[in-house]
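Reading is simple: each integer encodes one residue's backbone shape. The lines below illustrate:
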Amino acid sequence: MAATSGVRWARKEDERWAAAFTLRLVTEFHPPKGLVDQVLSEVHETVTGTGHLAKDLFGEPRAYAARVAADHIDETHTSGRNLQGATPGEQFTGALAMAGLGALVLSAMRWARDGMWTQVSPALLAGAAVLAVGVLAGCLTGALRTAGRVRAARVCASAVVAAVVAAIAALSALPHSGLFELPVPVPVAISAAVMAGAHLLPDATADRWFIGRRSKDSAQWMRHLDGQLQGPHGIPAHQAREHVAEARSHLASAPGPTAQDEFGDVEAYAAGLAGGPRRTRRALRRKAQAAVLFVVAVAVANLDALRSAEVTSLWFWSGALAISLGLGYAAVQYRNYRHQR
């Protein structure tokens, strides 16, 4: 027997079906806590009682995951969450933890290459400082967008671009002569501290940093609706404006109540408008786009190593492996998006 999410399967075929179903439901639909175990328990009970294979009773794992999502995941769960199922706080802490992990890996590789001490030049010091600001701005961008604060997210995204340009300029224009020697364990410790801090920071606390006060003012409610549709739900700006215009028209035809009284909670209303199969397609499209950007970033970061390092060096093969993994991940995400379409 084999176990999947606490359920023990008597047949390998059912175990593989359950694993594929779980993967699709979790990665594509981001179900609420406990739903996967509940559904698998029901499937296991039916399979055990009938003696038939799960595939024969419930169909392909991908299709059944879509049916389960349609039946059990509604706006009460997707409200206030982005297409990856994260709240603003979860988006911020997750991005910060990944940034810390990336810095930790780079620092450890530098330690392995250069030893305990490394030379810090004006170019390296300025470039690293500006890039750190850019990384923080990038973490804020995703959190602000998830909170529906699209304009603030665009400002932070612009800051990321400016930081990259400034870092390139600093590395090109400033001297590369050593200012001082730095023990490599220092950046390793800082990176580990960032990861630990992101992990220990409660998501609810981080949520409060990004979610503004709710107001019963109808104009503000409409602005927040527009931000919610464009931000966490990924609806194009022109479609979001159409939804807002329809809500305004409906509210004008029934004078008296505020938008809050007429439509209810703005986040739940936005989730209802943005739900359905199109939400899944938008989520997969955004994953594919993010994967492409990730590959480009990895390629740019490792281009110098591939050009200058010897084929037998650790840096060369680390860069080649990172690019290969990125390309594979992007190919999988693009295939999933094409299949969903």
About this structure: The chain has three domains: 2-73, 87-212, 213-275. Residues 212 and 263 are 19 Å apart (CA to CA). The longest strand covers residues 117-120. The mean pLDDT is 85.
